[in-house]
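JOB MANIFEST
job_type = single_chain_structure
chain_count = 1
residues = 461
[input]
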Amino acid sequence: MTESPWSGDACSLVDAFRAGELTPVDELEATLAAIDRSELNAFCHLDADAAMQQAERADVGLPFGGVPIGVKELQAVAGWPETEASVPLADRVAERSSTMVDRLVAAGAVLAGQTTSSEFGGVNLTRTVLHGITRNPWRPERTPGGSSGGSAAAVAGGLVPIATGGDGGGSIRIPAGFCGLVGLKATYGRIPRGPGLQLGNLTAVAGCMARSVRDTARYFDVTSGHHPTDPLSLAIGEPWENRLGSHDLRGLRVAVVPDWGGAVVATEPWSVVEEAAELLVDELGWQRVDVDATLPRVGAAWSLSGVVGIFAALGDTWPDCADDLTPEMRAGLRSAEGRYGMDARIRIEERRTALNEAMARIFSEIDLVLTASNPDVAFDAAGPLPQTFGGIETGADNNGRLTFPANLHGNPAISIPVGAVDGLPVGLQVVGRHFAEPLLLDVALAVERARPWPLTAGLVG
């Protein structure tokens, strides 16, 4: 048995299995031991016997053969809890696995356990009544973000090399930025949703929390492609991993936007982002373009568009269950109650249309937007959500203003670690046109090579 889990990325772990340097059983034993002694609270459910059976029969010739992964608790695994990280649903068990999970298992992945999430994926803070506080491995008193906070903490904290994530308003990019990981929010439809899920608000997409660009590419190669239960899922294209590094990045037109989505970004993290952006501009001969990047405010539209599914999940337990919810979820539902009528729905669609047209205009003039992944470094793990950034009082919705737009307009965006402030990671967010993920991955690869970043925070227990 190895003393600690693999500290490299998932692709290199598969290579080590194939070379006979260690076995999937050895790695899973190290992983389960590390989870047991960890104080990050990144996992909320383990099924060690089933995981060991998967490890024992793992085919290391497969893309993720033998790799232990964490599965975000908002994504279904048959027989596992399906709680939405909420006390009123604490006894619910998933009857079937999601398409994404099924594809990961078919690619050889070992389901090590379920990682924590914010309640219903509603905020960028992973602290719930059901599971308690999840912590950032770089500084445990700080949050790993949310909603994919447990997955981010597990990957950055050295517990598993890769984990599933989901992004409905920044829930991959925000924790990637806070934890020093690669986090891609893909074009809507890349990875099928369901089965058994309503179409919902058409903002949430699945993905992963990864230590490297190539892990991200391999993950999407394995999980992408149309599925008949999701009529909006996209047909599979050319494999992304095989195409990494194939783009000629010179001469791209880029806009560097500190106030993307109307956000206010604190001075120190923005300095790190701007320095990384300027490095790319200089080294790759990019053309920096001054473009009107003004976008309509979409925080309220995003928030209202998601509450229908939450009300549906809670059913007749609401409002009696209000005291069992986190303060953020309770306040959000009470605010939405009574104003999610036709007028509100019309306003949402008007705002979404205005955003789509603004994005089409912007990307007719440029190829990429460079901005921050978060308006500041990770805040207190116990909350509350910060409302002041760079000395400016903004309100709590500023936490997601940088990331909300990509979910409402559907374009791909990726967070890449580029530096730190006070020992806490800072992420550069790159936004592209619809279906431009291969280009974004190559940009991320260029950053990864130019500014190497530690694959883990070095904290296991």
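[summary]
Residues 361 and 383 are 38 Å apart (CA to CA).
The longest helix spans residues 342-365.
exit_status = 0
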